[in-house]
Amino acid sequence: MSSKNQMIFLEAPLYGGLEEHIVSRGHTCRYCYGEGGFGGDPRLGEVWTPCPVCKGSGKMDAEVTIKWKASEKVKEKKERERK
Ligand SMILES: [Zn+2]
User: Fold this and answer.
1) Segments making up each domain of the chain, as ranges
2) How many A from CA of 62 to the centre of ligand 1?
3) What's the pLDDT at 59?
4) Distance, CA 50 to ligand 1 centroid (Å)?
5) Does residue 74 surpass a pLDDT of 90?
6) From ligand 1's centre to the CA of 38, what distance in Å?
7) Integer Cα distance of 13 and 15 in angstroms
8) Average pLDDT value over all residues in the chain
9) What is the 3-state secondary structure (H, E, C) of the chain?
């Protein structure tokens, strides 16, 4: 089965102190395999039940927040070296 894969390449921000938000849309729901729900064949008298995970869309969006901060560990080491 095909799937959508994306990678995030981290690169420190030029001006520091940033929070980045990345949205990756359209990933196939793994709970319903992209079908959006279960059952629903009227010939069998089934009732369509929307997927509780993707709420019937068959797709999931990922929201990733990256918080950048100064590295305290390296800062302490550099301060010790200067003394
Ligand atoms: Zn689903």
Assistant:
1) 19-82
2) 14
3) 97
4) 8
5) no
6) 9
7) 6
8) 88
9) CCCCCCCCCCCCCCCCCCEEEEEEEEEECCCCCCCCEECCCHHHCCCCEECCCCCCCCEEEEEEEEECCCCHHHHHHHHHHHC
Task: Please give the share of the chain, as a percent, with pLDDT higher than 90.
Answer: 54
Rounded to the nearest whole angstrom, what is the distance from the C-alpha of residue 65 to the centroid of ligand 1? 23
Give residue 74 CA to ligand 1 midpoint distance, Å: 44
Query: Of the given ranges (18-22, 48-52, 69-73), which has the lowest mean pLDDT?
Result: 69-73
Distance 39 CA to ligand 1 centre (A): 13
54 CA distance to ligand 1 middle (Å):
4
Q: How far is the CA of 12 from the centre of ligand 1 (A)?
A: 35
Measure the CA–CA gap between 79 and 83, rounded to whole angstroms: 7
CB atoms within 10 A of CB 54: 21
